[in-house]
Specification:
The structure is a homodimer of 587-residue chains. The first copy, chain A, is α+β, with helices and mostly antiparallel strands and 587 residues long. Among the domains of chain A are: 199 residues, Aldehyde Ferredoxin Oxidoreductase,  A, domain 1, CATH 3.60.9; 180 residues, Aldehyde Ferredoxin Oxidoreductase Protein, subunit A, domain 2. In chain A, 41% of the residues lie in helices and 14% in strands. In chain A, the strands form four sheets. In chain A, strands 2-1-6-3-4-5 form a six-stranded mixed beta sheet, sandwiched between helices. Chain A has a six-stranded mixed beta sheet with strand order 8-7-12-9-10-11. In chain A, helix 1 runs parallel beside helix 21, helix 11 packs parallel to helix 13 and helix 12 packs parallel to helix 15. Chain A is globular. Chain A starts with a strand and ends with a helix. The mean pLDDT of chain A is 96. At the A-B interface, helix 5, helix 14, helix 15 and helix 21 of A face helix 5, helix 14, helix 15 and helix 21 of B.
């Protein structure tokens, strides 16, 4: 495999041999290491000094089930930290089959480009036919131009306007821009380089080499069976998608409502996964749909409007929560339209839902006003009015513009869909992950709420730091394989699942990894990310939640009651090699 | 003397005995120490956890010349650092004469207040007659209500709207709101506590106790003579005000022009101190005017419009530079109107001039468009439109909203009127001071350009770190005395001046300070401020200039070429007590 380095300033590109130290890295491990090695941590994230790295995971492009995740890394304009944001869709598998281990975009062009990536290199294509357009139109124009089978990665007007909430859309199998590297404003970084889209054309690609085909096949099939046998991976996700969590979190009192005032929403039933399922079926949509070939969990869906016309897809729990409970909007069609706006304008739904809640807190529109909300997206954000530019910069920025102090962010990134006072393990992750508030970085909801991989009482502080630490390590490793994070449900419950992942890696690369090596990889990734952040100006003071989480959250009336020292203890044993080895000995 | 602690949440106030460790502190030393001792560095600056401290200097209220400076301290909503912002006007002397060593505002009220401060305590007065009004109207209404002799401290609409560029206005002897604690958004902190104004009524005040009156009188008179004998303090400032620097910096190639693109402005002559002097005289204004009783340098002035009507006063070099050269506006009347808007709306002129330059960079209005600029202030900022709310949050915020990367800030505070590539010593101060970019924190322009206190070549890096270090230490001490920083010109050139300051302090308090004690006080203040900042989340990565200062600046085509290590070396010897003592031994 090769690195494909693209210099936008000089419009040049070249394939490079993969340095030995990158050979065993993929996905997040590779994007984070390249960014640490090549980017000045104090650089302006929108300046020529920042880089944007796209890397398929180690298993992407193979027949490993659900292994088509794409990692996108750079310095985040939202958080100022290192960032790995990952997405499904078809691009990762195509890149891997073309033998591209990572695309590295550097510098910045003077005029807008579409980059056509083939097995032979890069073509810089004039972008004037797609500039200013939303992701749906961009995808249609580019597929007409370059062929239906082409994988499209693109930004909408939000990325062009360098909004810190801008995402990078990755088209799904039907060419819809519904899978996003959403978090951290990576769309603004792509926009700053003047790249509107990448065309991933894998015609004539050699495919991924598998050293030991039989062993790989056996491991992949076993792993696939384990996924299908697990109640969450094999039943819950394919049936209801992630939206199944609305009722679960509401019941648990951890569904943040009215800008994180309470943990229960009166209108939860109207926006639940079960309601969504019935609505989709009644309107001829698809409750179950895969975002990339070979996914067995198929958590996506196609949501039609009340006339039976396609409205949106990839409609997630976090999106429904963000615009729904968090903004007190109990109208599922309105939430679906807001999701569609985010996909089309190219915005992170979590950041924007929390931003909308803060805008409501500021009195720009009242809580529950779904028509006002749609107008803010369709008129202000789409057209880049001053108000749209405020909102597009995210929750912290919006709160600051209006003097609001109730802003649910960590490291300037919006806190997602699980109240940290009622699901304390995930609160620990929000506070400490190098990514800024991010549930996927250490999804303690598993043991706190779903009772997957054991049980840790969500309302107590005991055991949460350890839980979050172990999940953050495991996640950093999983994010490097290209496997969808949702495989973790099976991995946490089924002792034979992780060995199968190791077997697949060993069979593919002809190596001899152990389970410990995987853990060590996860720790290394976290250390690299923390090292970048420290050099970028972060210290323990940033690993904290906003002070309003000291207020009690109904219905449990709990607070986020960890001391700073307890939170700081999360990374202490990982950061020191010596301590890390000692800790590994204890596990 | 007493501390007067005002709890806005419960509308209670009480006089408190001054703790022994605060006895020798005043001004900046006292505000910074109280903030370090009492405020959680990770708090939201606009939340109830922040405090706002007003402290007259150690010599304020006495007959020491030019000793009426007021320090205002808190955690800054602009920078996130500790902040001491200081201002002239009459309030400091009145507070000192009332025996108030510091006013400490804590918590936050639910409704707007005017605080009437007398020797007997605090009265919470309904503010409905002044809410929403500009500082000029507020001053008029409150003086009509409380008497012409009353000292008024107030915020304009910017502070009410919690804009990060909001200042706190301190009325001068004529009751005009033209002296401001400008930097760092302290007006937003006062606004967050729902205090629109403070009335400082010193009727029946006992005055400042002087232990040794004869010695004090002798020292004060000698010091006064030295000020009057110095060419800058006794001639330059009283004649032309600070605006004399326009031609000086333009000549030196250090007058930042067009958002810091070059160091010379074609239109400099039209906005120079000399032109201002002629204009003022031709229109019947006052070229020379003191901001508080007993100032011998009288650098203020009264600037009338072309009909001979009062337009503005306290019209500084930095203001004229910020809206003038920096925005390529060569119309002095337009700049005066922008200054008036800032005074009335309650905004820092440096932050807003740099913000306007960034807005021009973003293409909101063209460079040089003074009519467009006036409209942005009169319509957008005054009315709090979304665009006004962006601009009112300062330069970094505005740049971010529009995806601009050429943003001249350090720690999110706008870089002032001296290009750091052509006046490298002050660039070192911008990078390293705990305050965010602030020329007054270590005014190396003295030795770099004015050849006061020696000469250090402004275009070379040699000696700049030491120069800035020594000035930062001295400034922290001067800011604690209540003396105007401009006494530094005489102090740097006249070896007998600083001993007279020490004599005044010793005579007033009946103590035995040495010159070394004054230096040690300065170092202590810097250490306290750095300690707060570290706990607030700052590290060396924040002590850097934006990357575009690596571009060459005409006419000298120099860059800001210090290494990070060189900059970090500034505080290293101060931060360690041992090293500090060693360094003191060498001096």
């Amino acid at each position: 495999m090769k690195l494909l380095r693209i210099d936008l300033t000089n419009k040049k590109a070249e394939f490079q041999v993969v340095p030995q130290e990158y050979a065993a890295l993929g996905g997040r491990a590779l994007t984070s290491k390249i960014i640490l090695d090549e980017v000045d941590p104090t650089c302006n994230p929108l300046g020529k000094g920042n880089k944007l790295v796209f890397a398929p995971g180690l298993l992407s492009g193979t027949t490993a089930p659900s292994s088509g995740r794409l990692s996108v890394g750079g310095k985040s304009p939202l958080t100022g930290t290192i960032k790995e944001s990952n997405a499904g869709g078809v691009a990762a598998q195509k890149l891997a089959r073309m033998g591209i281990k990572a695309l590295i975009l550097e510098g910045a062009a003077d005029d807008w480009n579409v980059l056509k990536i083939t097995k032979d290199g890069v073509e810089f294509v004039d972008a004037s036919d797609v500039i200013g357009k939303g992701n749906y139109a961009v995808g249609e124009i580019l597929r007409n131009k370059f062929g239906e089978k082409t994988g499209v990665i693109s930004i909408g007007p939000a990325g062009e306007n360098k909004m810190s909430a801008a995402s990078i859309a990755v088209a799904d199998m039907e060419g819809r821009p519904v899978r996003h590297a959403g978090r951290g404003g990576m769309g603004a970084v792509l926009g700053s380089k003047k790249v509107k889209a990448l065309i991933i054309n894998d015609e004539g690609a050699p495919g991924v080499e598998i050293k030991n085909k039989e062993a790989f096949k056996e491991a992949a099939q076993s792993f696939s069976k384990m996924l299908l046998a697990h109640p969450v991976c094999g039943q819950g996700l394919p049936t209801y998608g992630t939206a199944v969590l609305i009722n679960v979190l509401n019941e648990a009192g951890g569904l943040p409502t009215e800008n994180f005032r309470t943990g229960r929403f009166d209108g939860a039933d109207k926006i639940s996964g079960e309601t969504m399922y019935d609505t989709i079926n009644a309107r001829g949509g698809k409750p179950t749909h895969a975002c990339h070939p070979g996914c067995v969990m198929r958590c996506s869906q196609v949501y039609n409007d009340d006339k039976g016309e396609y409205l949106t897809a990839g409609f997630e729990y976090e999106t429904i929560w963000a615009f729904g409970a968090n903004c007190k909007i109990d109208n599922l069609d309105a939430v679906a339209k807001l999701d569609r706006y985010c996909d089309d304008l190219g915005l992170d739904t979590i950041e924007m839902g929390v931003t909308l809640g803060v805008a409501m807190e500021a009195g720009i529109i009242p809580f529950g006003d779904h028509e006002g909300a749609l107008k803010l997206f369709g008129e202000d954000i789409a057209n880049g009015t001053p108000l749209g530019r405020i909102l597009g910069q995210g929750a912290e920025f919006t709160g600051k513009a209006y003097g609001v102090t109730r802003i649910p962010t960590v490291k300037r990134q919006a806190i997602p869909a699980y109240d940290p006072r009622a699901v304390k393990g995930v609160g620990v992750t929000y506070a400490t992950t190098p990514m800024g508030a991010d549930h996927t970085a250490g999804y303690s909801v598993t043991a706190n709420i779903l009772k997957v991989g054991g049980y840790v009482d969500p309302l107590k502080i005991d055991g949460q730091v350890e839980l979050s630490r172990n999940l953050q390590i495991a996640t950093a490793a999983v994010d490097s394989t290209g496997l969808c994070l949702f495989v973790a449900f099976a991995v946490l419950d089924e002792p034979e699942a992780l060995p199968k992942v190791v077997d697949m890696l060993n069979a593919q690369y002809g190596i001899n990894l152990t389970l410990d090596d995987v853990t060590e990889l996860g720790k290394s990734v976290l250390r690299w990310e923390r090292e970048f952040n420290k050099k970028a100006g972060f210290n323990n003071a940033h690993d904290r939640l906003p002070e309003f989480f000291q207020e009690e959250c109904p219905p449990h009336n709990t607070t986020f009651d960890f001391t700073g020292e307890e939170l700081d203890n999360l990374f202490a044993p990982i950061e020191s090699e010596v301590l890390a080895e000692a800790a590994a000995g204890k596990e």
